[in-house]
Design a protein that fits this description.
Helix content: 10-25%
Radius of gyration: 19 Å
Mean pLDDT: 97
CATH topology of the largest domain: Quinone Oxidoreductase, Chain A, domain 1
Number of domains: 2
Number of helices: 8
CATH architecture of the largest domain: Alpha-Beta Complex
Bound molecules: NADP nicotinamide-adenine-dinucleotide phosphate
Shape: globular
CATH superfamily of the largest domain: Medium-chain alcohol dehydrogenases, catalytic domain
Order of helices and strands: EEEHEEEEHHEHEHEHEEEHEHE
Low-confidence stretches: none
Strand content: 25-35%
Distance between the termini: 12 Å
Length: 314
């Protein structure tokens, strides 16, 4: 089967089409015939070697991709009766594991990481959901702001940020989000109660909306210390790239890792149902043929994308 992966770490051009043995589903695993694989920042980290520490002893090729949408074409033993061959599904793919990632015609994943795809949605759109929405869900869960509280979301026009705004609104929170001028309408469309200009000084602008400081903040723009002044004393901060503080003033800093929720069947399924209802907005920037993965990575690294680039493996 064809896959896209790397034999050595490096720039976008190390991504190449590979001919790999057809993977077989073992106990508790299913094989998905991949139609679409979303391209995310963590795939760039895999390509450049940033995930090497999580793959000790593993040899190349390394195949990126944490988000697959497709059709189940093989069930391993002991997968229970929940899933069936021929079912349209989405999968959260543990790409640093032995089977590799979603940039492949077929991927083998734990059955617990596979749920029915949102109904009425194409494969490219479906592939943009799980990894980033689950990260946003995890961030809001660790922040644990009670209904009626306030949360700020930076990077709100981005994938994790957009889902964080929509999930926070569904949780009954007041949301202050950042955006560039050109993204303000989109972010307001996600339900943000207040939209402030992004970038340097964002914390002070959030404070203008909530003078006492917000209860918590999801740092989708990875501004770390810069966003801390927006949070009230004793509040909480969710970080996406491992920063763990200290933030001072009794503020709890929670680095979140989506890998903690790879097999949360109920949680993954709930996100699909929210996408089906339109509570979560699925955004595709562009669909590219799989062999153009290097171009997809260049687009992502250039920044400014709104929605995911998706690789077509159908
Ligand atoms: N810990 C985990 O498990 C986990 C899971 C998923 C993602 N992540 C990480 O979370 C981060 C966000 O991921 P994503 O997929 O949401 O990325 P994304 O779609 O690119 O969104 C990031 C957003 O932040 C904006 N931004 C970047 N720097 C900024 C700055 N200095 N000030 C204001 N806005 C800024 C970007 O704008 P431009 O596009 O204009 O630059 C973009 O709108 C990435 O670092 C990713 O690796 C971590």
């Amino acid at each position: 089967m064809k896959a896209v992966g790397v034999l050595e770490f490096g720039g976008p051009d190390v991504l190449r089409v590979l001919d790999l043995p057809e993977p077989q589903a073992g106990p508790g695993e299913v094989r998905v015939s991949v139609h679409a694989a979303a391209v995310s920042p963590t795939d760039v980290l895999l390509r450049t070697g940033g995930h090497a520490v999580r793959m000790p002893g593993r040899r190349p090729p390394f195949v990126p991709g944490m988000d697959a949408a497709g059709v189940i074409d093989q069930l391993g033993p002991a997968t229970g009766g929940r899933l069936a061959v021929g079912q349209r599904v989405v999968a959260l793919v543990p790409f640093t594991g032995p089977h590799g990632g979603a940039y492949a015609e077929q991927v083998v994943v734990p059955a617990a990481s596979v749920v029915p795809a949102p109904a009425g949605v194409g494969f490219p759109e479906a592939s943009t959901l799980l990894m980033n929405a689950m990260t946003a869900r995890l961030a809001l869960d660790v922040l644990a702001v009670p209904r009626g509280g306030t949360v700020a979301v930076t990077g709100a026009a981005g994938a994790v940020g957009g889902y964080a705004v929509e999930l926070a609104k569904a949780d009954g929170l007041t949301v202050i989000a950042d955006a560039a001028e050109g993204d303000a309408a989109v972010v307001r469309g996600f339900g943000a109660d207040h939209v402030v200009e992004r970038g340097s000084g964002v914390a002070a602008r959030i404070r203008e909306c909530v003078p006492g400081g917000v209860d918590a903040l999801v740092d989708g723009s990875m501004q770390t210390t810069e966003v801390v002044p927006a949070i009230r004393d004793g509040g909480a901060l969710a970080e996406l790239r491992g920063w763990s503080g200290p933030a001072g003033r009794g503020i709890r800093v929670h680095p979140v890792m989506v890998s903690d929720r790879l097999e949360d069947i109920a949680g993954l399924d709930a996100l699909c149902r929210l996408a089906e209802k339109g509570v979560l907005t699925l955004r595709v920037a562009e669909v590219l043929p799989a062999h153009e993965a290097a171009r997809a990575h260049r687009l992502l690294e250039a920044g400014g994308l709104r929605g995911r680039v998706v690789l077509d493996f159908s």
